[in-house]
Prior knowledge:
- By secondary structure, the chain is mainly β.
- The protein is built from one helix and eight strands, in the order H-E-E-E-E-E-E-E-E.
- It has a single domain (2-189), classed as Porin, CATH 2.40.160.
- 12% of the residues lie in helices and 64% in strands.
- It has an eight-stranded antiparallel barrel.
- A hairpin with a 6-residue loop joins strand 4 (92-106) and strand 5 (113-128).
- The longest helix has 22 residues, at 2-23.
- The two termini are 42 Å apart.
Amino acid sequence: MKKLVVILVVAMFFFMCSTVFAQTKTEKGQIELGGNASLSVNSFSLDGNHDETITTFSLLPRVGYFVMNKLEIEPQLIIQSVTISPEGGDSHTQAIYGGILSVSYNFESASNLIPFVFGGIGFLGNSFTGATDLKTSLILPSVGGGLKIFISEKGVLRTEAFYQRTTNSFGEDKLTDSGFGISFGFSVFLK
């Protein structure tokens, strides 16, 4: 019984601390710095024959500013390197850069968990070895939702699920790309 009481007291202490972490984080004037990085390797085959491999490295830094309580504007940079390696051919690398301007609404709670929803638009510039006349890609929309988990007073683990539609994908005129994704990152609250 003593162990149960000690465990409950410790759990209550951590719950109270986590409540303190989240209570004032989404107020007007707060700044959130963060982002994520990802690496993906996709292998394509047709009828069992290996066709090509596409390797993508993404760096996605962001800064958020709360313009009013719970409402955050989040510009995000997009820096990607895409390497296409066809079977039996030369590899080609494409640099993709751009940004997304998102607005998010944070549902502040009495715990260290803050769910949020967001929506945004953006653009991507494309640079491909040996290619000319590439179009600018437009991201419209980028929408989703996620969860911010305070692991300390200022440190946050962030996960989100999103849908993104891109026109002129990879700089190709009239090529549209739609997809769902999951993202994980880390943020620091400065105030």
